[in-house]
Known about the structure:
About 65% of the residues lie in helices and about 0% in strands. It has four helices and no strands. The radius of gyration is 18 Å and the shape is elongated.
Amino acid sequence: MALKVKTAETKVVLVNLLICMVVFYTVYYVVLSVCFAVFKIKMLDGLAPFDFKTNPSWINPYYLVLVISLEITFFICGLLFALVVEEWVWDYAVTVTIIHIIITSVVMSEFPLMLHWWLALGSGVISMTCGGQILAYCLFRDNFIYPILDDF
Length: 152
Protein backbone atom coordinates (compact mmCIF):
# COMPACT_ATOMS: atom_id res chain seq x y z
CA MET A 1 0.00 0.00 0.00
CA ALA A 2 1.53 3.29 -1.12
CA LEU A 3 1.28 6.53 0.77
CA LYS A 4 -0.89 8.95 -1.18
CA VAL A 5 -0.40 12.61 -0.35
CA LYS A 6 -1.92 15.38 -2.39
CA THR A 7 0.53 18.11 -3.31
CA ALA A 8 -1.99 20.89 -2.67
CA GLU A 9 -2.64 19.69 0.90
CA THR A 10 1.08 19.44 1.60
CA LYS A 11 1.64 22.97 0.28
CA VAL A 12 -1.15 24.32 2.48
CA VAL A 13 0.32 22.64 5.56
CA LEU A 14 3.83 23.90 4.81
CA VAL A 15 2.62 27.44 4.11
CA ASN A 16 0.59 27.42 7.34
CA LEU A 17 3.64 26.13 9.23
CA LEU A 18 5.81 28.87 7.73
CA ILE A 19 3.21 31.49 8.70
CA CYS A 20 3.05 30.08 12.23
CA MET A 21 6.85 30.12 12.56
CA VAL A 22 7.04 33.75 11.38
CA VAL A 23 4.20 34.72 13.73
CA PHE A 24 5.86 32.86 16.63
CA TYR A 25 9.25 34.56 16.34
CA THR A 26 7.76 37.97 15.52
CA VAL A 27 5.57 37.83 18.62
CA TYR A 28 8.49 36.48 20.66
CA TYR A 29 10.78 39.39 19.78
CA VAL A 30 8.02 41.99 20.26
CA VAL A 31 7.16 40.57 23.69
CA LEU A 32 10.87 40.37 24.56
CA SER A 33 11.33 44.02 23.60
CA VAL A 34 8.40 45.09 25.77
CA CYS A 35 9.63 42.98 28.71
CA PHE A 36 13.16 44.36 28.35
CA ALA A 37 11.71 47.90 28.46
CA VAL A 38 9.43 47.15 31.43
CA PHE A 39 12.25 45.57 33.43
CA LYS A 40 14.65 48.35 32.31
CA ILE A 41 17.27 45.99 30.96
CA LYS A 42 19.59 48.05 28.82
CA MET A 43 20.52 45.66 26.03
CA LEU A 44 18.19 43.35 24.12
CA ASP A 45 19.98 40.08 23.50
CA GLY A 46 19.17 38.74 20.02
CA LEU A 47 19.66 35.19 21.26
CA ALA A 48 17.29 35.60 24.22
CA PRO A 49 14.56 33.30 22.81
CA PHE A 50 17.11 30.50 22.74
CA ASP A 51 18.77 31.13 26.11
CA PHE A 52 18.26 28.22 28.46
CA LYS A 53 21.59 28.63 30.25
CA THR A 54 20.60 31.57 32.45
CA ASN A 55 20.52 30.46 36.07
CA PRO A 56 16.97 30.47 37.43
CA SER A 57 16.51 33.17 40.04
CA TRP A 58 13.38 35.14 40.83
CA ILE A 59 15.52 38.15 41.73
CA ASN A 60 17.38 38.14 38.39
CA PRO A 61 15.44 40.50 36.09
CA TYR A 62 16.99 38.95 32.95
CA TYR A 63 15.69 35.50 33.94
CA LEU A 64 12.25 36.95 34.70
CA VAL A 65 12.18 38.58 31.27
CA LEU A 66 13.02 35.26 29.62
CA VAL A 67 10.32 33.32 31.49
CA ILE A 68 7.59 35.95 31.24
CA SER A 69 8.22 36.58 27.54
CA LEU A 70 8.19 32.83 26.83
CA GLU A 71 4.83 32.33 28.56
CA ILE A 72 3.20 35.42 27.04
CA THR A 73 4.49 34.52 23.58
CA PHE A 74 3.15 31.00 23.73
CA PHE A 75 -0.29 32.15 24.92
CA ILE A 76 -0.62 34.92 22.29
CA CYS A 77 0.62 32.60 19.53
CA GLY A 78 -2.00 30.02 20.46
CA LEU A 79 -4.68 32.62 19.87
CA LEU A 80 -3.09 33.79 16.61
CA PHE A 81 -2.58 30.23 15.37
CA ALA A 82 -6.33 29.70 15.72
CA LEU A 83 -6.87 32.43 13.15
CA VAL A 84 -4.34 30.91 10.75
CA VAL A 85 -5.03 27.17 10.98
CA GLU A 86 -8.54 27.06 12.46
CA GLU A 87 -9.11 23.78 14.32
CA TRP A 88 -5.59 22.32 14.03
CA VAL A 89 -3.97 24.58 16.64
CA TRP A 90 -2.64 21.72 18.79
CA ASP A 91 -0.80 20.19 15.83
CA TYR A 92 0.89 23.41 14.77
CA ALA A 93 1.62 24.37 18.39
CA VAL A 94 3.49 21.13 19.00
CA THR A 95 5.28 21.32 15.63
CA VAL A 96 6.40 24.93 16.16
CA THR A 97 7.62 24.01 19.65
CA ILE A 98 9.63 21.05 18.34
CA ILE A 99 11.17 23.27 15.65
CA HIS A 100 11.95 25.87 18.34
CA ILE A 101 13.72 23.19 20.41
CA ILE A 102 15.77 22.15 17.37
CA ILE A 103 16.69 25.76 16.55
CA THR A 104 17.57 26.38 20.20
CA SER A 105 19.86 23.36 20.22
CA VAL A 106 21.59 24.52 17.03
CA VAL A 107 21.96 28.16 18.12
CA MET A 108 23.27 27.31 21.60
CA SER A 109 25.34 24.33 20.30
CA GLU A 110 23.93 22.19 23.07
CA PHE A 111 20.73 20.29 23.80
CA PRO A 112 18.78 21.97 26.62
CA LEU A 113 18.84 19.83 29.75
CA MET A 114 17.75 22.51 32.22
CA LEU A 115 14.60 21.44 34.07
CA HIS A 116 13.36 25.00 34.58
CA TRP A 117 13.48 25.62 30.80
CA TRP A 118 11.52 22.45 30.05
CA LEU A 119 8.91 23.32 32.70
CA ALA A 120 8.46 26.80 31.26
CA LEU A 121 8.30 25.41 27.73
CA GLY A 122 5.81 22.71 28.75
CA SER A 123 3.47 25.14 30.49
CA GLY A 124 3.75 27.44 27.48
CA VAL A 125 2.76 24.66 25.08
CA ILE A 126 -0.20 23.77 27.28
CA SER A 127 -1.40 27.38 27.38
CA MET A 128 -0.82 27.76 23.63
CA THR A 129 -2.76 24.61 22.83
CA CYS A 130 -5.63 25.12 25.25
CA GLY A 131 -6.10 28.82 24.54
CA GLY A 132 -5.84 28.34 20.78
CA GLN A 133 -8.12 25.30 20.66
CA ILE A 134 -10.78 27.02 22.77
CA LEU A 135 -10.68 30.11 20.56
CA ALA A 136 -10.77 27.96 17.42
CA TYR A 137 -13.76 26.07 18.76
CA CYS A 138 -15.61 29.31 19.57
CA LEU A 139 -14.80 30.93 16.22
CA PHE A 140 -15.22 27.93 13.94
CA ARG A 141 -17.83 25.91 15.81
CA ASP A 142 -19.95 25.39 12.68
CA ASN A 143 -16.97 24.15 10.64
CA PHE A 144 -15.25 22.14 13.40
CA ILE A 145 -14.21 18.60 12.43
CA TYR A 146 -15.47 16.08 14.96
CA PRO A 147 -13.92 12.60 14.89
CA ILE A 148 -16.24 9.69 14.24
CA LEU A 149 -15.76 7.33 17.15
CA ASP A 150 -18.45 4.78 16.26
CA ASP A 151 -15.86 2.27 15.02
CA PHE A 152 -13.94 2.16 18.30
